[in-house]
Amino acid sequence: MRRITIPRPDDWHVHLRDGATLAAVAPFTARRFGRAIVMPNLRPPITTTDAARAYRDRILAALPAGSGFEPLMTLYLTESTTPAEIARAKASGIVHGVKLYPAGATTHSDAGVADVRRTDATLERMAELGMPLLVHGETPDPSVDPFDREARFLDEVLAPLAERFASLRIVVEHITTRHAVDFIRSSRDGIAATITPQHLLHNRGALFAGGLRPHYYCLPVLKREEDRRALVDAATGGEPRFFLGTDSAPHERATKEAACGCAGMFTAHAAIELYAEVFDAAGRLDRLAGFASRFGADFYGLAPHRETLTLVEAPWTVPESYPFDDGRLVPYRAGAAVRWRIDAENGE
Ligand code: DOR
Ligand code: ZN
After folding, report:
1. Which ligand neighbours the alpha carbon of 264 most closely?
2. Can you list the positions of beta strands (E) in the chain?
3. CATH no. for residue 54?
4. Residue minimizing CA distance to atom 4 of ligand 1
5. Ligand 1 atom closest to Cα of 250?
6. What digits encode the pLDDT tens for the residues 195-205?
7. Which of 10, 11, 247, 280 is catalytic?
8. What is the pTM (predicted TM-score) of this model?
9. Which of 20, 123, 176, 209 is most buried, judging by how many CB atoms fall within 10 Å of its CB?
């Protein structure tokens, strides 16, 4: 049986939700990852350090006893976020990034930023204090084709922003295209990107395979096969600017299987195992540790974990659904096999 041991990985982009749904999903992430950058797009959004601290306490309370998992909190950037709030966030030691949602681009982004220039003073303070800006990189302009929204945002909004704030650290979250890979590779120091498992495993054909497949719908939407290949090349290439971020985003079954279904794929139940599949298929399992356990920590100025995680090649079948508050959560690959699993020695 093949096995691979890596330093315990971290998830640099995850949605844990709140309340009963938080309790339903957080253990999956905590089982695999030592830390995770937790997205702030709750209702209402996490816009202050005080709210982030309270949310962090709720996450810790939802973890299984003895879990060493550390949630790394983020603030939701609005046009009213003040430079003083950034200073408070930095001083707290628990806030590790500030998330820019272009208003209207995705789930719970309506409180986001309509005109990024109105946040200039706040971005300036972030650059001074070394607080990273985490970006949902899509233009919300409905006249732009959904498959072009990432490229348009990178070229028209992010490139000038990165020039205006030359020392601002930026993570372009969940990149989906060859264009984005090229953009990151050719950008200045201090700019990196996360990549999800679904964008490494699938192209947009998955959305239409034999009928409309709502459980493959996320934002940014899956792209072309050439884009997927460029992402695999970036993730498995040993390049420190690209690191793991699942964007695992749970939604109750009825809200996905609907006339107007929510965007988001739940992958936390098998996240590191799915990345292992991708790296194995590329013949690059030896590079999983960099992508999953080192490059993200380096970017955020944190030490990698000393503890390890061992994966074994031993297929298992994903349940059809998991409990999710009063409803059900349909996980990625429901009812089908995942090739890798966490070794029993890691306590499963
Ligand atoms: O598919 C997505 N789901 N993309 C996002 O940007 C947000 C996320 C969510 O919160 O459900
Ligand atoms: Zn996300």
Report:
1. 1
2. 3-7, 11-14, 35-38, 70-76, 95-100, 133-135, 170-172, 191-195, 242-244, 308-317, 322-324, 327-329, 337-342
3. 3.20.20.140
4. 219
5. 11
6. 999 999 999 99
7. 247
8. 0.98
9. 176
